[in-house]
Each structure stands twice: as C-alpha cells, then as structure tokens.
Design brief:
F-box domain-containing protein; FBL13/AtMIF1-like; Leucine-rich repeat, LRR (right-handed beta-alpha superhelix); F-box-like_dom_sf; alpha/beta; 17-stranded mixed sheet; membrane; 11 helices; three-stranded parallel sheet; transmembrane; disordered C terminus
Amino acid sequence: MAMCVEDGISSFPDHILFHILSFLPIKEAVRTSIISTKWRYLFASISTIKFDGYLMRGLTDRNVDSFKNFVDRLLKFPDQVSLDCFRLNDIVSWNDKDHNFDVSGWICAALCRGVKEIDLDLKNLGDTLPALLFTCHSLVTLKLDAVGSEIKVPSDVCLGNLKTLQLRNSVLFGDSIHRLISNCHVLEDLAFIECGFDNISEVNIQSPSLKRLVLEFDVTEGRYFNFVVVINAPNLVYFQYHAAVAKSYILSTMKSLEKADISIYQFDSIDCETSATHLIQGICNVWSLSLTIDEVIFRTSRLPIFHNLIEFKYLGVGFNGRETWLVEFLHCVPNLKTLTLNFPDDAGTRWKALRMKVPSCLSFHLKEIEISYFDTHMIEMVSYFLDNAMVLEKLIISMAALTWRQKCEAQNKLLQLLKRSKKSLIVILYYCFILWLELISVWFGFV
C-alpha cells in the first residue's frame, strides 16, 4: 500500500505562498503551477516580478512571441494583488518590428497595480516611458538606467511617496531636474550617475527631506560641467560627488552631514581653484571624508577647520607636492583619528625634506594609519608618521602590489624603523589577500 506524503507547504495561507514565490525567478515560479490545482494560478499573484534579458536567450521567434503574451497576461490579468517590485532588464534589446513588445503598457500595468518599486535597465527607450511613471503615488523607489535615452519630465510631475530616485545614463533637459525633485516631497535618496544635462545653466537640488545624494558624471565630457551646482539639503547625511569641477557651487549649510566622498578633476575652462574650494568649504561639518584629486586644485590656506572630521581617506594621483599638501591639510583636521593614504604610483616622496610644523592631530588624536599600494619609496613617509604620531596605535600597510623581493626589502626596512621607534603599536602587513599580524610586533615588545 503506497504511503501518502503530506504536503505541508500547500496548507499555508495564500498570502504566505505569494511571499515565498516572490523570491523565485519567474521561470521557477511558473513551474510551481504543475504541483497541484491549488498552485495552478498562484504564480500570477506574486508581488515581485522581474524580467531579465537572459530569460530569452536561445528562444525561437515563436517562443519570443509566447514570452510576450505571457508577460501581457501576467501583468494585465484582472483582480491581481498589488506589486512590491517590478524590474525590467535588457528586454528592449529584443524588441523589434517582428515582436513589438508593449514595454510602455507593461510599465503602466505595474503602476496601475500600485507598484512600490520600479527598476528599469533598458536601452534607447525613446517614447517608451509613460507619463504615468512621474505621477504615480504608490512609488517608493524608482531606478532608471536608460542608455541613449532622453528623460522627459512632464509639467504635472508628482511623486508624493517617492523616497529613492536613481537615474543612470540618461539625459535631462532645462529645468526638469528642479521640477522633478521639488515634486518629490519625501525624497531621501537621490542619485544622478553618468547623466547628461542639456540646455541647462544650473543643477538645482533643493529638498529638506534628502539624506543621501550621489552626483557621479563622466569626467571625460567637460561640456557637462559648464553649469552651477546648487544644493539646499539641510538634512543631508551622505554626499558623493565624482566629476570635473563645475562652474560654481552654492551649498547651504550641511549641519547633518556625516560622510562625504569627493573625487574632483579640473578642466582649464573655469577657475577650478575658487570653485573647488567652495565645494570643500560646503562640507566642513563632515566627520568622514574621502578625497581624490589629480592636481592641487585648491590651497589649504583657503580651507576652513574641519572640527568634526575623524576619518580621512586621501588619494592624490600623480602630482608634485602632494606630500606637502597633505601635511598642510592635516592642520585643518585637529581631531583626526584615522588616516588612509592611497598613492597608486611610485613617483617617490619628499618626506625627508619636510620641515613644517607638526599637525596637532598627529600629536594628540591620530590612532590609526593605513597605507595602500605601499612601495619602498614610501619608507620616508612611514618614518615621518612613526616620529610624529605620538598616540598611534595601529599601522596597516598593504604590499599586495610588490614583488616578493620588494616585499622582503620593504619588510626589512620597516623592521629597522619599528625598532628605532619603540612605540607600543600593532603593525599589520597586507601581503596578498590575507591580513597578517606580524610576529615582529612581539619581538620588539609591542602589543
């Protein structure tokens, strides 16, 4: 007599089964329809729908048409539950005159089902984006990667519940940026990545609710930066700016700012020093700063004192005098506790020649230093910090870029410095992909 195996999962309430199916790829979710009559149409009520281009690999024209019809039925089937997430990735690349996918209709169907998150990664959208996308009150997250597309923001835009907006590889016109942001009344996370701005003199970002802002533009396109950047976001917590220096910056006081990641590059067509200085002055309340510059774009004498800064990561790429500039900048950060240096070339250093006043942060507060891309030219830099960082507790050095012979040579030189220093210090040497706490620390009586 055959044993009857009880199906415990099928006894779960439908809303739990919908939630379980939402974690499965759409193909696997559809396959559950053969389990039993109860499961036959459950997949049609899942709250997360994701379609990626890989679903169509190897399909014949007939199968592509079947896929199109399946998506139409799935999204437009009556009496369906609201959607938590709708994602389209690289579907338009399959769209041609033989198939004519109704991408705009799919997006509208998701919007009509009260979708909370829309993630579109599509190329050459043209007029695919429906105006309804910019007036949907259910949307909480909108991510749009639209290579080669122009984003047309309607005059009646209103996204009253949108908290996250990310636009990538898009082109925006005129005052559409300000119109879009000003009508997102609870916006918290905003990102423009590799976007272009045409017929515009000002990038105006004003949002009292904004907490995270990312502006990341292609530095090879200098024409994109002949505009003024205006930011009025008093509750901003994180700010990232990776781009060429803009024509000018007008930044309101960012009293809530905690972390900033700034990578700036200069073009000769504008007064880079004045403009870059205004940018750095605007973030003076930050407590964690990552700064990348390829030239001495601004003088430290024009900078404010960063009283709150306790973490600083500095990447100075291939310009003369970066060591002097760094020591001068350390005078602007009297309470610094952690310093990370990333010099990815072997241009050499001039630390022995420094006869400058020692920054107060080295004397009283700096406890941890990390040096990435270390090579033998940087021994003098290590010596400088060992001599002047009086409360230093940890030194992390990455030698991953060195040959084995160079690593041995560098280690021997470091041994001599540590022996001379006699500081109570943890030394971590990063050789490959593993952090090793060297036994030399014990030999010299260090912690």
